[in-house]
Amino acid sequence: MKKTYQRRRRTGALGLVCFAFALQLLAVSNAKADDGYRLWLRYDHLPANVSKDYRPRVTSFVVQGQSPTLDAVRVELSGGCERLLDSAIPFANRIDGDGALVVGTPSGSPLIDDLGWGRQLAALGPEGFRIRSVKLGGHNVTVIASQGEVGALYGAFYFLRLLQTEQPIDRLDVSQKPRLQIRVLDHWDNLDRSVERGYAGRSLWDWDALPGKVDPRLVDYARANASIGINGSVLNNVNANSKSLSAEYLQKTKAIADVFRPYGVRVYLSARFSAPMELGGLKTADPLDPEVAAWWKRKADEIYKLIPDFGGFLVKANSEGQPGPRTYNRDHVDGANMLAAALAPHNGVVIWRAFVYDAKPGYDRAAAAFDQLQPFDGKFAANVLLQVKNGAIDFQPREPFHPLFGAMPKTQLMLEVQITQEYLGQSNHLVFLAPLWREVLDSDTRVKGPGSTVSKVLDGSLFGQRLTGMAGVANTGTDRNWTGHPFGQANWYAFGRLAWNPDTPSRQIADEWVKMTLTREPKALAVVTRIMLESREAVVDYMTPLGLHHIMWGGHHYGPAPWENKFDRPDWNPVYYHKADLNGIGFDRTATGSNAVAQYSPEVRAVFSDPAATPEKYLLWFHHVPWDRKLRSGRTLWDELALHYQRGVDWVRATRKEWDALAGVIDPELHAAVKRKLEIQERDAVAWRDACLLYFQTFSKRPLPPGVEPPQKTLEEYKAKSILEIDSLNQSLR
Ligand code: GCV
After folding, report:
1. How many CA atoms does the CB half-sphere of 728 hold within 13 Å?
2. Most CB atoms closer than 10 Å: which of 130, 663, 667, 669?
3. Does 48 score more than 90 pLDDT?
4. Is 61 within 8 Å of 71 (Cβ atoms)?
5. Mean pLDDT of 520-531
């Protein structure tokens, strides 16, 4: 007998699921405009803003089996399809007409079991799925099948994405499986709900209210992650507080894990290395001390009793003041493997961060992680992954790929990227990060000949690593639109799509996101997609062109401060990185300098060692270059630098105009929010151009070339205050 799913009684996790969805729908129906809460899961009625000939048909849902994940499938499909297709679609126990959507697993659904797809589904694994248009019982139907329920949920989201992006659904033959296993968001969230490098409000985790009260918003967070295949969340900051591992806080973490579980999102915790002392009262946290190892083992047992699918520990050790094995004259392997032994019986993993650098005089920070970790290749336990940032410094607008990729063939490397735009204008600048991440993923390490890309290191195809993964430092918070800047959502989305398949083109990601989030109107779609694809290069132009890096204001890292030299640690000062002087500018990392280039394979090293062969986008990363050196354009370095800064400003101005022209097409509230942000972005781009050129001009002693506008303020004015404090724009518009 047919019945609509809404009429059924629901309890427990499903209750929360439905409550959140209902809240969301309510928000939609009450909203006069779009506040961005629904992310890319807007499911707006298709005929609005869509080509007239797109008429997909879904007549019923046949989802056999009972579980919270299958309930989530039902809620998503019925809510999504009904809104997209503007008709109530019934649930059925059997196929009784064309257009049925059959979803499930062979073990839960006799209909799917009968298809005999066992071998294909096994090859795709529990997170993979198959979607096919088939004839069943004489009817044309669509089947979404997976070996696992989470795979079926991913398939349902995939199907909804097809609808949202106006793809045909009548002749489907799709097989998908994730290329990387661990696809995790790293939240730098503190227990007081502040977020380190967070620009979108407070932490989503209300630790004080947990475990008694769980914010229904966490369901929408999990849904959003599942919709793009993210399967893990590290809940707390890598600058960790031991309290997160206390019995009291583990109960809170359990409550979150229970909400995430139906969506296939596992929780992880950052583990403070000194927790055995702070929580356990031990005299040491020496990893080779048997009492310390026993403490961690007991802690792991306690965690898994509460959270059987707990992912594992993320560890920032001996970095920026965090404790670690080196505190006890032990090494990274001693520390990581001791924790790994505690987690191994439960199939948990240790994600050990490679973001380590010592403060030594005359030392090149870019060489530090390699020097400290590469010698340990092949020594880490089977359940340890080494998490390596995309570049060797720190999430800059542009960095060459980290030399550890390609240099540790016997170690399981994970990529860490930063979704929150710490150094890229935070939640004020429109910067689509997929092109930045793609640049790293596509970089050729050359270690096994041409085509030895970072993405092949990561997915195990180059060196055969067993565990694979990618982490993104989250940009989410309690802001109603989740990410502060409406376009910040696109970066969360892009992270998920690239972690699922590191070869996904940036253009495809942008196109999907715009269609699902902003508009399907073809002209507007083309404009917005192009803006997104250009935006990263524009930010590089107005912040750090030609390989410059880390010249942001110290501390908050917002805005320019190339003159800064106030920190005791030389490698926290911009002057350390650009090394401008009367002769030229840039960090010599060749054999005549720090020789960090030696960390790359011979083929890559040869390119980066030669200023004529080095791609100009990395020129000043590797070379100290005379101001008058002629670049490929025929212009001098100084002129080229100045023109890049101007080009960045010009791009923001042009983008503002293009955005203004979209006023009638984009939702008014979203349009206005982005418009305000672009105003700040122009103010900042101008400040970047002026401050950097005025300062570097004190060394170059050359005039600005034609085409570069005169500065709006003096160098002294820019030096006096960071642009966060310059004027009231921040207060009125942030
Ligand atoms: C969590 C940079 C950031 C820090 C961050 C650190 C890290 O240095 O500025 O806020 O600390 O990276 O990745 O551990």
Report:
1. 1
2. 130
3. no
4. no
5. 96
Helix (H) or strand (E) holding 351: strand 349-353
* Averaged pLDDT, 626-648: 98
Q: Where are the beta strands (DSSP E) in 81-128?
A: 100-104
Q: If phi over 0 gives left and psi between -120 and 50 gives alpha, with beta otherwise, what is residue 3?
A: beta
Total length of the chain: 734
Cα-based distances in Å from 316 to 237, 240, 243: 9, 8, 16
Using CA positions, which residue lies closest to atom 2 of ligand 1? Answer: 394
Q: Taking Cα atoms as reference points, which of 367, 389, 266, 248 lies closest to residue 316? A: 389
Name the residue with tokens 């001693």: 334
**Which residues contact residue 300 at a Cβ distance below 8 angstroms, ignoring those fewer than 6 apart?**
342, 343, 345, 346, 348
- Residue 294, Cβ density class (10 Å: 0-12 exposed, 13-18 middle, ≥19 buried): middle
Which residue's entry shows tokens 């689509």?
432
Token couple for 212 = 């008694």
Q: Give yes or no for residue 355 CB within 6 A of ligand 1.
A: yes
Cβ of 423 closer than 6 Å to ligand 1, yes or no, is: no
Give the pLDDT band (50/70/90) at residue 731.
low
C-alpha to C-alpha distance for 536 and 549, rounded to whole angstroms: 14
Is the CB of 239 within 6 Å of ligand 1?
yes
Q: Which of 322, 394, 556 to mutate to test the pocket of ligand 1 (most atoms within 8 A of CB)?
A: 394
Rounded-to-integer distance, Cα 86 and Cα 9, Å: 24
Per-residue pLDDT band for 31 (boundaries 50, 70, 90) equals very low
Strands in 580-683 per DSSP E: 584-585, 625-626
As a whole-number percent, the residues of the chain with pLDDT over 70 amount to 93
Tell me the two tokens of residue 251.
Answer: 């109960």
Which domains are assigned to the chain?
A: 2-176 (3.30.379.10), 182-517 (3.20.20.80), 541-587+624-733 (3.90.1330.10)
Q: What is the pLDDT of residues 443-473, one digit of tens each?
A: 999 999 999 999 999 999 999 999 999 999 9
Q: Burial, 49: exposed, middle or buried (Cβ in 10 Å; 0-12, 13-18, 19+)? A: middle
* Residue 236: CB atoms within 10 Å: 29
Round to whole Å and give the CA distance between 256 and 218: 8
308 CA to centre of ligand 1 in angstroms: 30
Confidence of residue 49 (pLDDT cuts 50, 70, 90): low
pLDDT tens by residue, 538-559: 999 999 999 999 999 999 999 9
Rg (CA), the chain: 26
Q: Which two tokens stand for residue 103?
A: 């979803």
Residue 60, H or E segment: strand 60-63
8 A C-beta contact, residue 312 and residue 268? yes
CA nearest 318: which of 353, 292, 276?
A: 353
Q: Does residue 69 sit in helix, strand or coil?
A: helix
Q: What is the pLDDT of residue 55?
A: 78
H helices of 421-505, in order, are 434-441, 454-458, 488-500
Encoded tokens for 188: 């730098």
DSSP code of 617? G
Residues 410, 412, 417, 418, CA torsion sign:
negative
Q: Is the CB of 394 under 6 A from ligand 1?
A: yes
- Ligand 1: which atom is nearest the Cα of residue 197? 10
Mean pLDDT of all residues in the chain? 94
